[in-house]
Each structure stands twice: as C-alpha cells, then as structure tokens.
Amino acid sequence: MPTLQLPAPADLRPWVLGVRVDVVPSGTLNRFPAMVEGAVVVILDGSVAAAHGPRLDGLRGVLTGPRSQPQVSRTVRRLTAVSALLHPAAVARLAGCSAQHLRDIEIDLADLWGAAWPGALHRIADAHSDFERVALLLATLRRQLSTGGADTRTRALALHRHAALPIHAAASRLGWSPRQVERLFLAELGLGPKQFQRVQRFEQTLLRALQQPVASLAQLAAAGGYSDQAHMSHEFRRLSGQAPRELLLRLQANDPEHWPIVHGWQFASTP
C-alpha cells in the first residue's frame, strides 16, 4: 500500500504518469486488472509470486508491458517497491523493441539496459529516503527516455491521441493505411487497435465508477459507450475477472486484494 505518491515532473510528461512507493504485507493477494499503461517496478525488498509466472525477489527492477487480461499475484514476503506508471507509448521506448513483446509480461531491467542498470539499482536501494529513491528512479528514466528520434515519439503519441477512433477513421486522420495503423498500434502501444480501445474503455469506466459512486450500472454502461449493461458486464469479467457489481462493492469496502485499484495504482494522471 502506498507510503508515497507523487505526480511525474513536467519534463518527463507525458511518458511518466506518476511515481510511488508501496509496502505490501506478506500474504496479500494482489489483483491487477487489464490496463493499457506499463510500469517500471523496482523491488527493494521482499518477494511476490504470480499465479502463472515466475517469482520476483528483491533486489531487482522490471519493466511491465500493457495487460490484456487480469493478473493475480501473492506477496510471499513483505514487499517494498518504488514504481513509475508509464504512458502506453513509453514502454516501447524504454524496451528498445516492439511493445507487443512485453504484453502481459515483465522483463528484468538488467536484460534491457545492461551495464547501466546495476549501479542505478544499488543507488536506489541505498538511498536514505523514499523521496531520494523516487528522484533516482526518475533520473534513470530520464536518461533512458532521452534515446530515440523525435519522429518516433511524435508517431507514438499521435496513435494514442487517435486511439478511441475506429481504425479507418484513425488511418484517414493520420494519413496511413488501416494496415499500417494496426501494425503501429502493436509496435508502439503493445495492443491492437480494438483491444486497446476495449481496455482503455474499461479503465475509463472503472475510474468513472469510482468518481461517481451513485451512478447505476446502466448509467455507467451508457456513459462508457457500451451497447448495453450486459455488454459492460461481459467486458468487466474479461478484463478484471469479476462482474461490475461485485468489483465495485469490493472496491467500496476497501478490499485489500484490490489495493492496486483502491489506492489508484493505475490512475495516476491517466490522459
């Protein structure tokens, strides 16, 4: 659960959406829904085991890509981590490869950044305060994000700005063919256009539900652009693992299993 949450500094926006330090007790079940954003997570101490994946032990850092499906893990040993939530277009820039390769997985930063990472990792771990750890992580991201041409950055952000449009409309506005748009979505944002829209719509509807707790499910479905309430319920089950009513009741009760949503893990200044 967060001990520190800060917005990203102006010079790292829009690539970095926010930074935080979390301490998660042993035995906690961690339920993350699908999300278009990525993250850099530095595990300072403790360990966490995914339901279908490797166990992550501190001291290490990972880059996580977009999630097309919910993810469940369990904190094996009390976890302390400093993290940066990333704009969807930042993942490919930090990985140096197609964001599609990071969909639903995490990659050790030592494998991505080579000799530059171990020193940065130990400086973050040896810092005297959470504020200093955050500053060191941001400095590392600043260096890594400085690579890549301006044309690549412009293209990725243009795709994101037009993500809500039907693919043919987006292609027309961007001056590309629909096939180019689909290929670039996978490369720059990690998900195809339709799947990106599905996950982004789910996130926006979930955020709206948290901000407007008196809204009915029918109202949320209409505001979110779903064809009807049944359509929204189907999407919530696919992307969070739970029906909307069940999920929202758990969030309102501050269910510790859903601490990533309750404590705003994925909603740090989401555009």
UniProtKB/TrEMBL annotation:
It comes from the Bacteria. InterPro entries: AraC_XylS_family_regulators, HTH_AraC. Keywords: DNA-binding, Transcription, Transcription regulation. Gene3D superfamilies: Homeodomain-like. SMART domains: HTH_ARAC. Residues 151-250 form the HTH araC/xylS-type domain. It holds the Pfam family HTH_18. PANTHER family: BLL1074 PROTEIN, HTH-TYPE TRANSCRIPTIONAL ACTIVATOR RHAS-RELATED. This is Helix-turn-helix transcriptional regulator. It comes from Caldimonas mangrovi.
